[in-house]
Amino acid sequence: SAESAGRPAPASSGRIPARSRGGRVEIRGVHKSFGDLEVLRGIDLTLPPGSVTAVLGPSGSGKSTLLRTINHLEPVNHGLISVDGEVIGYRREGDLLHELSEREVLRQRTSIGMVFQSFNLFAHMTALGNVAEAPRRALGATRAQAETRARELLELVGLSEKVDAYPRQLSGGQQQRVAIARALALDPKVLLFDEPTSALDPELVEEVLAVIRSLARAGTTLVIVTHEIGFARDVADTVVFMDRGVVIEQGPPAEVIDHPAQDRTRAFLQRVR
Ligand code: ADP
Ligand code: MG
User: Fold this and answer.
1) Mutational pocket test of ligand 1: of 32, 37, 55, 59, the residue with most ligand atoms within 8 Å of the beta carbon
2) What is the pTM of this model?
3) Which residue CA neighbors atom 24 of ligand 1 most closely?
């Protein structure tokens, strides 16, 4: 498949790729409901390889659900999502046109990393253990390979000194940087951040944003749900403003943040600033 070109077949080789390569994400007509509640009401977005997209919008507008559909954590009701041409969900008016096996879902999911507001580290594992775990399981890496790569990634996020620390011994900002290193350990083509700094004390926000900035320059395709408007303006090529399950407007930060065309975008920006 196109996806495997230039990319080692995970389980067979056990090699951990040296760095990330951005994937292309296509989202077409995506609808998602929970019972009677239609949370995504026809989302269309294209995320070119290596692009950085900031998603803004009020609480409850469907931002987390959108990330979760990209990462296969939620199936779509209809619509299509693809990463480098590989389809994640495709239904039309209830007709199931394409369904992936569980194995295929797991395989695709290794190419899409996710970082949550609440870090979600394994409490009983050190920073090194947290980062080395997934490549051992998902890519079949040996312990030595996984730990070598984990040390490199912890250095990349500025935590060389903390490889042997447990999560409870780390600040929130440090824990979130371990979580970012862990997401990078599978060499994702796409990395999704769901309000990565919302749970942090204000003085710890910048160290996490600095790591995300460095990833933005490294070429991984990033999607960042954030309320940090200044950060979104600095780091994003495209800002997407969502409200009530639809994209209200999208474009470069200089348009959407500095000169929004829509009243709802203006009202939101005034509230969060
Ligand atoms: P945001 O991240 O923009 O705050 P979410 O995507 O988390 O929004 O949620 C959008 C809407 O979907 C909210 O009304 C929320 O309560 C609802 N919702 C999210 N996940 C579920 C779920 N698993 N079951 C039922 N309702 C959900
Ligand atoms: Mg959310």
Assistant:
1) 37
2) 0.89
3) 34
Tens of pLDDT along 139-162?
888 999 999 999 999 999 999 999
Q: Which residues contact ligand 1 via a Cβ below 6 A?
A: 34, 37, 39, 57, 59-65
What's the N-to-C CA distance of the chain in angstroms?
45
**Cα 60 to middle of ligand 1, angstroms:** 6
Ion ligand 2 — residues with CB < 5 Å: 63-64
DSSP string computed for 122-151: -TTS-HHHHHHHHHHHHS---HHHHHHHHH
Q: What is the pLDDT of residues 10-59, one digit of tens each?
A: 332 333 334 457 899 999 999 999 999 999 999 999 999 999 999 999 99
CB 54 within 8 A of CB 221: no
